[in-house]
Amino acid sequence: MTYWPSGFVVAPMREWPGTMTARRRRSQFESTHFATPARLSRELRELGAKNPTLLIALRPEDFRLDGLPRASRVAAHPGIVLSFGSEHGPLSYPCDTFDRWEDNLRAIAPALEALRKVDRYGVTAHGEQHRGFLALDATAAPAGFADADAAYRWLVKLIGADDLAIHGTPAPAMVLRKAQRISHPDVGGDAATFQRVSLAEATLRERGLL
Question: By the 8 A CB rule, do 104 and 96 touch?
Fold first, then answer.
């Protein structure tokens, strides 16, 4: 069983951003799956992370309507990408070092801690240690939203003008539910739209609108 860090959006990966590791190894982490969410959540909180998104190499149909992966589905490869907004700009951390995606997710937590300690000890003044993680291949994840208003307007456009005529100005929660229903792969939606709905949800939740 996998335990998800609070506030994560989990979505299918379109493509791996770069060249994959040729020879992966088995993880030797002492951390358990129970400890991973707490440690990741702490590091993301320390970084002031906004809208954390985890991409896994699952098919869109491997996700439930609530956006989380279905139980026992097997990823095409173990690589994962963790992305989030920060004061340094949008950051993305791909990892496929180990032979299970759960272990690659666990590996990111101590990596984030190590990068944070560089600032703590005064080695850098402007987050230079994060610069190598600023860019993510555009094919790996959909574009995010500048603010909650942009996310809401995109969702409204997705569900169609007829809904607006019937409901007036719909509440964000109602718009989101409709968008989730029509974009999910189980009902004919596509992966890119499904991911973007998840990102819109994360933006609205961060602003306290859900």
Answer: yes
Q: How far apart are alpha carbons 66 and 181 in whole angstroms? A: 10
Please indicate, yes or no, if residue 35 is contained in any of the structural domains: yes
**52 to each of 2, 86, 206, how far by Cα in Å?**
17, 10, 10
Q: Which residues of 165-178 are buried (b: 16+ CB within 10 A; e: fewer)?
A: eeeeebebeebbeb
Tokens 């990111």 appear where? 108
Q: pLDDT confidence of 78, banded at 50, 70, 90?
A: very high
Does some domain include residue 4? Answer: no
Question: Are 98 and 24 in contact, with CB atoms under 8 Å apart?
Answer: yes
CA angle in degrees (0–180, nearest 5) for 149-80-128:
70
In a domain, 108, yes or no: yes
Q: In the structure encoding, which two tokens stand for residue 25, read together?
A: 């190894």
Pairing status of strand 9-12 against strand 91-95: unpaired
Q: What's the predicted TM-score (pTM) here? A: 0.62
Give pLDDT tens digits for 178-190. 888 888 777 777 7
The boundaries of the domain holding residue 127 are 9-133
- Beta carbons within 10 angstroms of residue 125's beta carbon: 7
Q: What is the widest separation between alpha-carbon atoms in the chain?
A: 58
